[in-house]
Specification:
Layout lengths: L5 H24 L23 H9 L29 H8 L7 H15 L9 H28 L2
Length: about 160
């Protein structure tokens, strides 16, 4: 402490007191808990003493919940009825479903195309009838496109 400023001597004294306090704390507590290999074993209790399997099982019985009884199996559902219109895949049947009379306007044909697509789109059809729905859509689009071409030809000829 000789040859030091007042500030340095106070700082040194505080450091010495802090070291003494740390030593006192470690002496009072004794050795800390051993961490590592044994801390992960299920057989060791909080005290570090080994527990038998039956003691460990008894400790968990309070937490055990009986499993819920299985729900009774419902009878298999009947398959949904097959939409009859998806079985009609001839061009004549599709034309009948479109109800084309030959006097429709282009706007009316566009509305019928949208309506037909809503009812017959393959994404809305059962998996086993998607090919039929796709074919119906192709035929309907072909018939409507042909009717629109006919309307344009008749207009160009002045009919």
């Amino acid at each position: 402490m000789f040859g030091m400023t007042v500030f340095e001597s106070v700082l040194e004294r505080l450091r010495a007191e802090a070291r003494e306090a740390e030593e006192d704390i470690t002496e009072e507590q004794g050795p800390g808990p051993v961490r590592g290999l044994t801390s992960g074993f299920a057989g060791l209790g909080a005290t570090g003493a080994f527990m038998s399997g039956s003691q460990a099982a008894a400790a968990y019985l309070d937490l055990y919940e009986a499993p819920a009884p299985p729900e009774p199996e419902s009878p298999p559902e009947e398959p949904a009825p097959v939409p009859e219109h998806l079985l009609r895949i001839t061009p004549e049947a599709v034309a009948e479903d479109l109800a084309l009379a030959g006097r429709e306007s282009i706007d009316d044909l566009a509305a019928r195309r949208r309506s037909f697509a809503r009812e017959n789109h393959p994404d809305r059809a059962p998996a086993e009838l998607r090919a039929n729905a796709t074919l119906r859509m192709k035929i309907a689009n072909m018939l409507i496109d042909e009717t629109i071409r006919r309307i344009h030809v008749e207009r160009s000829l002045g009919l």
